[in-house]
Amino acid sequence: MIEVLLGNIYIQSFIVGLILAAVFFKLSRRVKLNEPPLAYYRIPIIGHTWSFLTDCEKLILESREKYGETFSLYVFGQIMTIVGKETTHEVLKNDQVFDFREGLRMQVPLHLIFKQDMIIEKHVKITRDFIPGKLKHLISRIQKNISKALDLYIGECEEPKVIHEPRKAISDIFAIPIVNIIVEECYDNEDILETFKGLTFSIANLFRIPPVLSFIHPWLHQQFISIPLRFGWNPISKYRKVFISHIKPVIEKRLYDKKRLGDAWVAPVDVLQSYLDDPEVTPDLNPNNINYDYTVYAICNFIFVSMASTLEFASRPLYDLIERKQRYWQELYQEAQEINKQRNRNELTLDDISKMVKLDSFVKESLRFSTSIVGLPHKCISKSYYTFANGYQVPSGRIVNLNFSDTNNDEELQGQNPTEFHAYRHIKHNSPATKLERNFLIFGGGKHACPGRSLAINEIKVFLHQILLKYDVRTDIEEIRPKRKYLGPFPVPINVDLVFENRKEIVKN
């Protein structure tokens, strides 16, 4: 018993010694820099943490007014630098200095969840190559599957139907087209659909773990949150058997058909096939030589990114549309109806969807209006430090966050009354929701801008288009969001009950 206690004491002393040594080593090598001003705080150790969590909007606004567009805060035991509208794109474009992936890794070790960075890099490459080239082909399937999902989860509403958990319903609706894009044969498989949704929420929950141990040292939080992953637990592990049991037969059939038919074989158009076309994954078309674990983790990475972002991006414009129903609903319905009448075939083409300029601008304004206060953390990976164009310097290892509110509330960038919701403010500037600009940061920017934004925006527009044509939607409360609520810098998702009822007009299906 004594030996065990002594052993524990030695281990604890060793850990404390390592931390002290690291701190001493860092202090001994510190170079005096012209760092951005550190905002004043009263409580040692806690710093700005409480204000950042409880009233981030006020903290950022007051700090911006007092210290300028570049300043620093002390949150969860470490200094983070906040950059405003003048410096944001300096961070986004200098990917050799500011790494978003490393910044995100400080919060959640996604590289351990998905086993390796190579999978994440592969996801980005496939998304960048696959989506633009295949979107024209995919748009027909997206429409059919969203229509099918609406019928399945909302259905006919001759009498008013109350949807008590709209966010879950939206997740259910978008799971079907997303599954179809990732593995075409499995889009109606209930096990796969539930796996897609469950996996997304399991990983998303990891982002909600507060980095309390960072008060001692950020390294401790990273070690704590990764302990289960290092000892074998993984949110993907729970779903691995389901994936392999359903996807393995699909892969085997595809490889068999390709080998048997040769040039006559017509490859499916989906994400899975993009992986199978990689010689490193299928070197000899032999299903026995495929690393199924690699394939599963790669697919899971695609699922998480697609499902998490689309769920948020679709629910916000729907609620904004309902909240501002008297002002915008009828006008957007008329646009949808006119486009529906003019189309030359039963399905909308990409050209038809591009004509939804009012709906596109509405979606963009909704996303602009409900972004985080600050976000997109980037880690400075310079060898020693980086000097901004404004003269301020940040050391290597510093987390730099973008001040979205500074960009969103700027009259020069947004036009008149930037804090007010004007659905059509983007039309006169010929500024679609997929366009990367200085005044719209939700998709990032530069080399590492979101590669799937065109797919997400088109899915949302098709979804809202069908809602407008088929239903009247309302809520039984007077105001959906009387005042925007935040948890730290992040807007709290709205999940107010919605009432659906069939439209009375007869429209072309």
Describe the 3D structure:
The protein is built from 19 helices and 12 strands. With 509 residues, the protein is α+β, with helices and mostly antiparallel strands. A hairpin with a 5-residue loop joins strand 6 and strand 7. This is Cytochrome P450. Pfam families: p450 (PF00067). GO terms for molecular function: heme binding; iron ion binding; monooxygenase activity; oxidoreductase activity, acting on paired donors, with incorporation or reduction of molecular oxygen. It is found in: Membrane.
| Structural class label | alpha+beta
- Give the low-confidence spans: 1-11, 23-29
Q: Give the overall shape.
A: globular
DSSP helical segment count: 19
Helix content: 40-55%
Any idea of the CATH topology of the largest domain? Cytochrome p450
CATH superfamily of the largest domain: Cytochrome P450
Beta-strand content: 5-15%
First and last CA, distance: 76 Å
Rg over CA atoms: 25 Å
Arrangement of strands in the largest sheet: 1-2-8-5-3
Protein name: Cytochrome P450
Subcellular location: Membrane
Keywords: Heme, Iron, Membrane, Metal-binding, Monooxygenase, Oxidoreductase, Transmembrane, Transmembrane helix
GO molecular function, one term: heme binding
Secondary-structure map:
Elements: H1 2-28, H2 49-54, H3 56-67, E1 70-75, E2 78-83, H4 88-93, E3 98-99, H5 100-105, H6 110-113, H7 117-153, E4 161-163, H8 166-182, H9 190-206, H10 218-230, H11 237-261, H12 271-276, H13 292-323, H14 325-342, H15 350-354, H16 357-369, E5 374-380, E6 385-387, E7 393-395, E8 399-403, H17 404-408, H18 411-414, H19 453-470, E9 471-474, E10 486-487, E11 490-491, E12 498-502
Parallel strand pairs: 2-8
Antiparallel strand pairs: 1-2, 3-5, 4-12, 5-8, 6-7, 9-12, 10-11
Helix pairs in contact: 7-8, 7-13, 7-19, 8-9, 8-13, 9-11, 9-13, 13-14, 13-16, 13-19, 14-19
InterPro entries: Cyt_P450, Cyt_P450_CS, Cyt_P450_E_grp-I, Cyt_P450_sf
Cofactor: heme
Pfam family, one: p450
